[in-house]
Amino acid sequence: MARNELLRVRSALLAWYAAEHRDFPWRGTSDPYSVLVSEVMLQQTQASRVAERFPRFLDRFPTVEALAAASDTAVLAEWSGLGYNRRAVALHRAARTIAADGWPRDVARLERLPGIGPYTARAIASLAFGQPVGVVDTNVRRWLLRRFAVDDRPPVLQQLADTFAAPGSDGTAAAWTHATMEFGARICSQRTPSCRSCPIASGCPSRLTATPVRVPRQAPFSGSVRAARGKLLRELAAAPAYRLSLDNAHRLLDGTLEATVAALEHDGLLHRCGDSLVLGGG
Ligand code: SF4
User: Fold this and answer.
1) Is the shortest distance between the CB of 207 and ligand 1 below 6 Å?
2) How many angstroms separate the CA atoms of 132 and 165, rounded?
3) What pLDDT is stored for residue 255 in this prediction?
4) What does the DSSP 8-state code read for residue 270?
5) Does the beta carbon of 53 lie inside 6 Å of ligand 1?
């Protein structure tokens, strides 16, 4: 891509973001701990839900040291209702690593933290440490595919995202990361892209003809093992002393209890104590 075209697209999206972005509690901060918590929450939870729970989590655990010092049980109880509870266990372990060793600032070392994959490492590197690295989430993938008609392969998309992010070494790395995700969520959306108000419509091969971009399907939630896990963990988080008798747990899950408990024990989300189940790895 010609550099002029690249800079034109960047400048249009940065201007659009500055004028149109939604205010969320995690926007406008470069505090690494706030960025880490928000990015882990946003991995699999809707932004509107995270907006409710993120401030409460930071009130409860205001620093990475406070999170590192908390018990498994306290962290899981605070996470209850956000879903995908293994994220809380990984976040807790990451906080302990950071509290002991300090913050990794580049993508390669961020990726070594528990629960941090390539996308989250790049988001933290750009949002907290100003590194000009590209992020490819569902929203970014969609608009890159439509706007540039490139192959739908992760290395191709990552390289394109990195090319767009590179000029961010001038101090706009964080704004670019926010802009690139917000644009996909708000304008080049999955079902009804707003091509008529799109700031980069000129030259787009998908303008007014874009169809939904295929996304990998998740297993249905209702009736699944994930639903049983969520049900038991919510009950434990609400129980006195985060403890539930096995009899009550049987009444809750009946035939699926043993398999559910075994899976949750394996993930460090609960442990057995006598004839009870207790939230956390113990
Ligand atoms: S013109 Fe339409 S399809 Fe193309 S990038 Fe803009 S919103 Fe997406």
Assistant:
1) yes
2) 5
3) 79
4) E
5) no
Question: For residue 147, which atom of ligand 1 is closest to its CA?
Answer: 5
Q: Does ligand 1 have an atom closer than 6 angstroms to the CB of 148? A: no
Helix, strand, or coil here: 279?
Answer: strand
Cα 165 from chain centroid (whole Å): 19
Hey, what domains does the chain have and what are their CATH numbers? 3-197 (1.10.340.30), 225-279 (1.10.10)
Cα dihedral value 194, 6, 128, 142, nearest 10? 40
Please state, in angstroms and rounded to a whole number, the distance separating the CA atoms of residues 231 and 219: 17
* pLDDT tens, residue by residue, 101-144: 999 999 999 999 999 999 999 999 999 999 999 999 999 999 99
CA distance 185 to 195: 13
User: Does position 62 have pLDDT exceeding 80, yes or no?
Assistant: yes
Write out the catalytic residue numbers.
39
The residue whose CA is least distant from atom 5 of ligand 1 is 147
Structure tokens, 22:
């939604």
pTM comes to: 0.88
Please count the residues of the chain: 282
